[in-house]
């Protein structure tokens, strides 16, 4: 048996926990309220930084250099629009997308439960620490990724003008089928339906009186602002990965990279790249 609960407190799953929203002293923006609404967007944004995204980023950098950074930018913007719809659904109705789907399409969930049993047990373990601890845990993971990939970006020092051109000019000179496949893969890695289900559920964890239009409108505004910040951070991390691998591997031959590795502190990884003139093939599972 677990430890006794403090008086007046009952055990509840973290998605049933309600985070209270402080009352503002007057109209206008409030940092205290923004902090109270902060959390769901960063929990959601971790899906923009999963291994599939990192794999897509590094392959995109190696295949197309900085030419497809504009695809990353606009895919993230499109993802934000989808997350905004998820926010509005959860805030206005008080139900997440899964509950709405169950109301209209009551399909048994036992299959999905069996498939996700490992994830379920893991998050049940985190459950006893509360929702804010879970949000802080994922915030820590995102911070670590931002610092490590940001450090690599600074060390590699990619051509800044080329990076900016790749972000803001929707054009890919000299691109062909391989670059197109990478662009499609990047969009698919960023815009994911399961994230809409998650986000529409996470926004329900704030104590909002849905009978008052002012509170609903205010919640939508703060959640959108927090999501913009979270996805901007995820965009920067993905940008760092693409730029680092684009600078290091774009149009490089295996022999070139092998020789660079031999003459560096990571010489033990030189064997990954054979001594031939073939173009480097980058994969997250190599090395």
From TrEMBL:
| Localization of this protein | Late endosome membrane; Lysosome membrane
Which InterPro entries does the protein's record reference?
NRAMP_fam
Q: Which Pfam families does the record match to this protein? A: Nramp (PF01566)
Is Membrane set as a keyword in this record?
yes
**Superkingdom of the organism of origin:** Eukaryota
Q: What family is reported? A: Belongs to the NRAMP family.
Q: What does this protein do?
A: Macrophage-specific antiporter that fluxes metal ions in either direction against a proton gradient. Localized to late endosomal lysosomal membranes, delivers bivalent cations from the cytosol into these acidic compartments where they may directly affect antimicrobial activity. Involved in iron metabolism and host natural resistance to infection with intracellular parasites.
Entry's PANTHER family?
NATURAL RESISTANCE-ASSOCIATED MACROPHAGE PROTEIN 1, SOLUTE CARRIER PROTEIN FAMILY 11 MEMBER
Q: What is this protein called?
A: Natural resistance-associated macrophage protein 1
Recorded source organism is: Asarcornis scutulata
Q: Which gene specifies this protein's sequence?
A: Slc11a1
């Amino acid at each position: 048996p677990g430890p006794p609960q403090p008086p007046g407190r009952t055990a509840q799953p973290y998605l049933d926990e309600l985070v209270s929203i402080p009352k503002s002293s007057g109209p206008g923006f409030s940092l205290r309220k923004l902090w109270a609404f902060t959390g769901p967007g960063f929990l959601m944004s971790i899906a923009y930084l999963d291994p599939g995204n990192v794999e897509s980023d590094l392959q995109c950098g190696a295949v197309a250099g900085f030419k497809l950074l504009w695809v990353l930018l606009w895919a993230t913007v499109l993802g934000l629009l989808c997350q905004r719809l998820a926010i509005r659904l959860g805030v206005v109705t008080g139900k997440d997308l899964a509950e709405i789907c169950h109301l209209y399409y009551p399909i048994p969930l036992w299959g999905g439960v069996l498939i996700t049993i490992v994830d379920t047990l893991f998050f049940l373990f985190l459950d006893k620490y509360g929702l804010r601890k879970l949000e802080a845990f994922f915030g820590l993971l995102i911070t670590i990724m931002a610092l490590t990939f940001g450090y690599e970006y600074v060390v590699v020092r990619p051509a800044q003008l080329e990076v900016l051109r790749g972000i803001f000019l929707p054009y890919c000179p000299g691109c062909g089928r391989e670059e197109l496949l990478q662009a499609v893969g990047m969009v698919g890695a960023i815009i994911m339906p399961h994230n809409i289900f998650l986000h529409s559920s996470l926004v329900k964890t704030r104590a909002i009186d849905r009978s008052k239009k002012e509170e609903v409108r205010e919640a939508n505004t703060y959640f959108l602002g927090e999501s913009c910040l979270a996805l901007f951070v995820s965009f920067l991390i993905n940008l760092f990965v693409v730029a680092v691998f684009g600078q290091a591997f774009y149009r490089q031959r295996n022999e070139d990279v092998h020789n660079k590795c031999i003459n560096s502190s990571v010489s033990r990884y030189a064997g990954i790249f054979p001594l031939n003139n073939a173009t480097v093939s980058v994969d997250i599972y190599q090395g």
